[in-house]
Design goal:
By secondary structure, the chain is of the alpha/beta class. The protein folds into 3 domains: 112 residues, 3-Layer(aba) Sandwich (Cobalt-precorrin-4 Transmethylase, domain 1); 97 residues, 2-Layer Sandwich (Methyltransferase, Cobalt-precorrin-4 Transmethylase, Domain 2), CATH 3.30.950; 43 residues. The protein has 11 helices and 10 strands. A 5-stranded parallel beta sheet has the order 3-2-4-1-5, with helices on both faces. Strands 6-7-10-8-9 form a 5-stranded mixed beta sheet. It is elongated. The chain binds S-adenosylmethionine (SAM).
Length: 283
């Protein structure tokens, strides 16, 4: 058999989701390139499989060294299976450059498809599934995170993000500030014992997660896209409207009016109003 790369998906939390074809592929391949060899050994053991394949680590830190070796193996006729710790390789996981390397060398790439958190989350979310965009992890830096949310604000399709429990509340709060009261879903621990899917407008999700003392597990956030006719207000629009209202009424009432008009969060408008009223020179 000529050499090739096989992209093999593994479960995202429920071992029974490992496909027969995926298990056979790992048994029959020459080399398994794993994100973490210990995790893949455990997967093989749990699924009652024994593999004579050589397990080698392949991740962001050793990719530059390992890639040429794996490509040389494929060129020499070996079958290499690529797996990540959970889900579908390449989806916020290693593999993209290896696949490119195969194409550049004219090597065949095949897939054993299977579970992946973004699609699993989309199917249970109750958000439109005809058009969606998967946007990976939000950047940890606040400014970059805000910019990433602003980038997708005009898209009229469901947006899917990966998130960590530690950052969930901050991200939901930023989303509320920028996207207003859009319908959203937090899908946590999918296919596992403590699976939960919470669907509510963004401000309600913020309120719910503020109440949680501790939060664990793996999380996908999904947010509804821009609706037909939905007006998107940028900061300049909001400032102009606020300025008018601040001339007419108290800060509190002005904030209330603008929140109602824009659907943006009270926190954002209040902050802006405070900045503006402080900046207004005395008469
Ligand atoms: N390649 C994987 C896939 O196809 O699902 C995703 C890998 S990415 C490094 C890991 C992230 O996926 C987690 O931080 C979480 O956001 C999401 N995730 C993975 N498993 C999940 C699950 N069972 N439930 C909810 N989210 C999950």
């Amino acid at each position: 058999m000529s050499g090739r790369l096989m992209i093999v998906s593994t479960p995202i939390g429920n071992i029974s989701d490992f496909s027969k074809r995926g298990a056979c592929a790992l048994e029959e391949t020459d080399i398994i390139a794993c994100e973490d060899t210990r995790v893949t050994r455990k997967l093989l053991a749990l699924s009652g499989r024994t593999s004579t394949a050589k397990l080698v680590p392949y991740h962001d830190h050793n990719g530059a060294t390992m890639r040429p070796r794996l490509l040389a193996d494929i060129g020499a006729g070996k079958v290499v299976a690529l797996v990540s710790d959970a889900g579908t390789p390449l989806i916020s996981d290693p593999g993209y450059k290896l696949v490119v390397g195969c194409h550049d060398n004219g090597f065949k790439v095949t897939a054993v498809p299977g579970p992946s958190a973004p699609l699993t989350a989309l199917t249970v979310s109750g958000l439109p599934s005809d058009k969606f965009v998967f946007a990976g992890f939000l950047p940890p830096n606040k400014k970059a995170c805000e910019a990433a949310i602003r980038d997708i604000r005009d898209l009229s399709m469901t947006i899917i993000w990966f998130e960590t429990p530690q950052r969930l509340l901050k991200s939901l709060t930023l989303m509320t500030d920028i996207l207003g009261a859009r319908l959203a879903v937090v899908a946590r621990e999918l296919t596992k014992m403590h699976e939960e899917v919470i669907r509510a407008p963004l401000p309600e999700l913020v309120a719910q997660f503020q109440e949680r003392k501790s939060l664990k597990g793996e999380i996908v956030i999904l947010v509804d896209g821009r609706q037909n006719g939905e007006t998107i207000f940028d900061e300049i629009d909001v400032k102009i409207m606020l300025q008018k209202e601040l001339h007419r009424q108290s800060l509190r009432d002005a904030v209330k009016v603008i929140v109602e008009r824009t659907g943006l969060s009270k926190r954002t408008i209040y902050q802006l109003a405070l900045e503006m009223s402080n900046a207004t020179p005395p008469e």
